[in-house]
Amino acid sequence: MNQQQLVNAISDYIVDNPTEAEKLKTSEGAKEVIKEAVKQANLPDTVVYRIVVGSLGAAIVIVIVCVAILAGIKVSIPDGLIAIGAAAVGGLAGVLTPVSSS
Questions:
Q1: Distance CA 20, CA 33 (A)
Q2: Do the Cβ atoms of 56 and 88 come closer than 8 Å?
Q3: What are the structural domain ranges in the chain?
Q4: Half-sphere exposure for 66 (CA within 13 Å, toward CB)
């Protein structure tokens, strides 16, 4: 989670829950508000998110290289290889597409 996402999550939480603004007067209250805002924001876990994006990206690159090699030696490209590449592209698009908060 980057700083801007955190700021947006906290501000959205406070706007949606105006009574929580009172808690910001103390350090403990502010920590509680921040934890609750982050919990409700449903932001992706950066480690898992990066692993998924990296894996899908690697699958796409591997498929492109395999297709290029097979095309270079004039061997027919299996439909399964094309399907794996298409699924990886679709999965990556789905992971990277922002989700609206409304």
A1: 7
A2: yes
A3: 3-41, 46-96
A4: 16
CB atoms under 10 Å from CB of 61, counted, come to 12
Q: What is the pLDDT along the chain (102 residues), one digit of tens a residue?
A: 555 666 677 777 777 777 776 776 667 777 777 777 767 666 666 788 888 888 999 999 999 999 999 999 999 999 999 999 999 999 888 887 766 655
Using CA atoms, how far apart are residues 73 and 58, in angstroms rounded to an integer? 23
Q: How far apart are CA 84 and CA 81, in angstroms?
A: 5
Statement: the pTM of the whole predicted model exceeds 0.85: no
Amino acid identity at 39 = K
